[in-house]
Structure formats: structure tokens, C-alpha cells
Amino acid sequence: MNQPRILVSYFFGPRTIPLGEACARGFEANGCTVYRFNSQVSHPLDHFGLKWLAKLARGLHLSDDYLVNGHPWSNLRYRERCMEKAIANFRPDVLFIIRGNSFRGPFLKRVKKQFGIARVVGWWVKDPRPDDPQLLADSKLYDDYFCIHRHGYKEVDGIGYLPALGLEQRPAMPVGNMVPPPRSRGIVLVGGWSKRREAFVRPLLDLPLTIVGPGWKKRGRLEPAYWSKILTSQLWGSEVEDFYRSGKIVLNITSWDPAVLTGLNLRICDVPALGAFLLTDAAAEIAEFVEPGREVATYTTPEDLREKALYYLANDTEREAVALAGLRRAATDIETYAQKMARLLISIGLAGVAE
Questions:
Q1: Fewer CB atoms < 10 Å away: N or C end of the chain?
Q2: What is the C-alpha to C-alpha distance for residues 329 and 171, in angstroms, rounded to an integer?
Q3: Which DSSP category does 336 fall into?
Q4: Distance from C-alpha of 118 to C-alpha of 142, rounded to nearest angstrom
Q5: Hey, what domains does the chain have and what are their CATH numbers?
Q6: CB contact set of 116 (below 8 Å; sequence gap of 6+)
Q7: What is the pLDDT of residues 199-231, one digit of tens each?
Q8: Distance of CA 203 to CAs 19, 47, 337, Å?
Q9: How many Cβ atoms sit within 10 Å of the Cβ of residue 351?
Q10: Other CB atoms within 10 A of residue 118 CB
Q11: How far apart are CA 74 and CA 54, in angstroms?
């Protein structure tokens, strides 16, 4: 198949997670023609009562799915109609669906046959969920299926391990002992509220901490006395990069415990590539991407986090040496999305051409 046509389904736009765009550009770097389908499309009536009906149905634990996805005005059905129009116009060889928002099995089967699609590929990019059968059930709807973590499936399930970590492009190799940019903030954290994040944040509330993320001000979470530490609920694109660079310490607290459940978030590679210092929760998988203790720093417990934070706030030279080592690793060795998509193309029977 020469120059395959690939429809990528995920979130696209200036105020969305950039993973979909990075993958689309990665495919294009491999000689593919790409259509970007924004799976966040919602029915025009969604804001006029339908979403509240769906919430009510979920809250009442109704077994009948009709009120949520079964009726023709649901977001799922509307998303499928929009997807079918895109397929009819673009005529892809491959559907690459980042999960992400879902599609029904009968719909995928029908459009594959109707429009002659060679492969329907799924990529689970959600967090690991113990005892949740959704991953395995979802994987059976696709010709090829990948997951960003190693939890919840076995080799016989036919799911490939494909971590999401990567770089859209490598940073320039730093020359000599590069002078670090000014760090105007102490500890910076990007992430919505979760029980685990709050447990690790509480020992840091007397330190120079700045949080970006939704949910922290809801009742029963951070007390109003600490709301001054919350800069905003959202930052996007270059705003996030500037925020990371402004911090002496970029703190990463995974929503799940990565020492127990596998899987890492994108900050493991994103932050070192910006020349910033990353302090992240310890996990064995980190060593597959960067070297703990030399290119990033890790912690295990809330008490250990506080001790490490105090140490690196007080030791500028050592902290910036770690940041510089991480930047050098990103400039030479962290996988790019062009390389990642080349590996994916090969694994589904197509050839990648990324250098």
C-alpha cells in the first residue's frame, strides 16, 4: 500500500490534549495522508437538556442504555454520523481511533466493509483501571489494538504495548554548561484534583507551590486558605511549556500509583525536553525513558516528596544539572512520534519511513 490514507480520531483544537496532533504529524512524517477527526463533537441539543438526562440515567444506575447512548440524538450516535461523513469523503485505508471517545462495534464493522477500510486500529490511552472489563471488551472491536500501559490484559488477548510518551520533535542539543533560564516559581504542578494528588500535595502547602488544574476548590478538598496557590484551572499549548520552565521544580503526581499499576503520563518526557527539572513519583518503567536520579528525580511517599522538594529548592546547582542531563537525553534518545507511528505502521503490516 503506497502512501496510506489514515483517519486519526481524537481531540483536535487549540485547547485540547496535543496527543492527536502529534500522532497525525507522526504519520505524515512517514509519508501518510492524514485526516484529523475531532471526536469531541457533540450533538447541538447536548447543551439543551440531553447531557443532564444522561447524567440522571447514570446517577440512577439505569440498566437501559437508551437514555445515555441509545437514542438518535446522543453524542455517541451524532459522533458516529460525523465520522461516517468524514470516512465517505476521505476514504481512508486505516482508521486510527485513540480511545478517547468510543464507537460501537456494529458501526465500526459496517463502515469498514462499506468503505473498504483495510485496518481499524484502536489505542487505549486511558489510565489503568483495576477490575474494569472495558479495555478487553473494547479491544475486540478492532483489527489491531494497543494500550499505553501493561495492566489488565495478557499476551493471549492480542493487545500490544504502545506507551504514549514521546516527543513531537527533539530539542536542540545544549552546548556546554548551558545557563538555565530564570525560575520565577518554586514548585509547579499541572493536574486536576484527585485523592492521591491531594494526599501528596498537603505536605507541600507551606512551600512555594503553584497549581494549575480543575477541581481543587470543590467542597471537601483544599481549604479556601490555600486557594491562592491555584493559578487557574487550565493552561494550553505554549502556556503550559512556559509554566513548566518557570518552576524550579516541576512536580508530577500520577492519578494512580505507578508503582502498583503500570503506565506513565506524558510529563516524563515533556518536562525534560523543555530543560526543566522533573520530580515524579517512582516507577520501574521510568528507566525505559529517562534515568532516575540523573535525568529526573523521584519520590515514593508524601514524606519523601517533601524531603526531596526541600532539598532541590535549596540546591540550585544540583537541580539544574539534573534538568540539563534530562534535556540532553531528550535531544538524543527519547522516541519521537514519527518513530512511534513508524513502529505502529510496521506492526499493522504497513511500512514506516521515518528517519
A1: C
A2: 10
A3: B
A4: 11
A5: 5-166+336-347 (3.40.50.2300), 185-332 (3.40.50.2000)
A6: 91
A7: 999 999 999 999 999 999 999 999 999 999 999
A8: 32, 40, 36
A9: 12
A10: 17
A11: 9
Judge whether residue 334 has pLDDT over 60.
Answer: yes
Residue 154 vs residues 157, 191, 269, 286: alpha-carbon distances, Å: 5, 30, 27, 21
Report CA-CA distances (Å) from 348 to 152, 189, 343: 22, 37, 9
* pLDDT of res. 124: 95
B/e letters for 169-207, b = 16+ CB within 10 Å, e = fewer, are: eebeebeeeeebeebebbbbbbbebbeebeebbebbeee
Closest-CA residue to 314 (of 197, 207, 201): 207
SS3 138: helix
Number of H helices, E strands in the chain: 11, 12
Residue 174 pLDDT: 86
Angle at the Cα of 158 from the Cα atoms of 19 and 25, rounded to 5 degrees: 20
Of 271, 213, 276, nearest in space to 247 by CA: 276
Mind giving me the DSSP string for 30-72?
Answer: TT-EEEEEETT---TTGGGTHHHHHHHHHHTT-S-GGGTTTST
Each residue of 57-70: pLDDT tens digit?
A: 666 665 445 455 55
What is the arithmetic mean of pLDDT over 126-155?
Answer: 89
Computed on alpha carbons and rounded to an integer, the radius of gyration of the chain in Å comes to 22
Sign of the CA dihedral running 315, 256, 232, 22: positive
What nine digits make up the cell of 205? 502547602
The CA angle 22-127-227, to the nearest 5 degrees, is: 90
- Per-residue pLDDT of 62-100, as tens digits, reads 544 545 555 555 788 889 999 999 999 999 999 999 998
Cell numbers describing residue 148: 499505553
Going from the C-alpha of 331 to that of each of 240, 270, 328, 341, the distances in angstroms are: 20, 12, 5, 19
